[in-house]
Amino acid sequence: MCRVGATENPLLNGSDLSTMISGSSLSDSRQVDEQGKPLYRNRRNMSSAGRVLTGAFREISQMAEDLNLPKNISDRANLLFRQVHETKNLRGRSNDAVSTACLYMACRQEGVPRTFKEVCGVSRVSKKEIGKVFKKILKILETNVQSVTVEDFMSRFCGNLNLNIAVQRVANEVAKRALNFNLVAGRSPVSVAAAAIYMAAYALGYRKEKRG
């Protein structure tokens, strides 16, 4: 009988998985079934590192699903987590915080930006802790991430609000002029995008319904 297990994650060390054959002699009647076939005892002896990686990958997958992110983002986050874990420079830090920080970094690196608040919103760790870990990971991996821009969020925000392309075009122009005239210095791209969309929607006749 063919025994097929779950697909092995290439990021997990294959040496963590072992198959043990019971007993020492196939002639022992206790090692064969009623059809004379040898009995095997499959046992997965996973190391502590393997358990950490498995738990982190599961957490990343769940957060990515909650944020409706494509698989390449979770794959990138998994790789980042393993790289950080192997350095052993974040011992004592919450694995959930590291997982969340890696997911946020993966979004930035893969050009699928999510706000820091959005990513933290699906985590069980505080934003403060995730922020600290994120900065440490940048130093540990000696890498950086591209700065997010207003345009990175404009299309998605307008889509989430069911606003048409006309509003998006006006909002882009509003944001561009505000940046060119240095009217929003120190403001985050998310804040600028939100303000520009509000102004554009208002100018084009969109009104938020009053709640009773």
Automatic annotation (TrEMBL):
Q: Where are the transmembrane segments?
A: 188-206
Report the residue ranges that make up the Cyclin-like domain in this protein: 58-139
Instruction: Read off the SUPFAM superfamilies from this record.
Output: Cyclin-like
Q: Which SMART domains match?
A: CYCLIN
Highest taxon of source: Eukaryota
> In the record, what terms sit under GO molecular function?
RNA polymerase II general transcription initiation factor activity; TBP-class protein binding; zinc ion binding
In the record, biological process GO terms are: transcription initiation at RNA polymerase II promoter; transcription preinitiation complex assembly
Subcellular location per UniProt equals: Nucleus
Task: Tell me which GO cellular component terms the UniProt record holds.
Answer: nucleus; transcription preinitiation complex
What species does this protein belong to?
Answer: Echinostoma caproni
Residue numbers spanned by region Disordered: 1-37
Family listed: Belongs to the TFIIB family.
Name the Gene3D superfamilies for this protein. 1.10.472.170, Cyclin-like (1.10.472.10)
Q: Which keywords does this Swiss-Prot/TrEMBL entry list?
A: Membrane, Metal-binding, Nucleus, Repeat, Transcription, Transcription regulation, Transmembrane, Transmembrane helix, Zinc, Zinc-finger
- The name this protein goes by in its record: Transcription initiation factor IIB
Polar residues: bias regions: 10-29
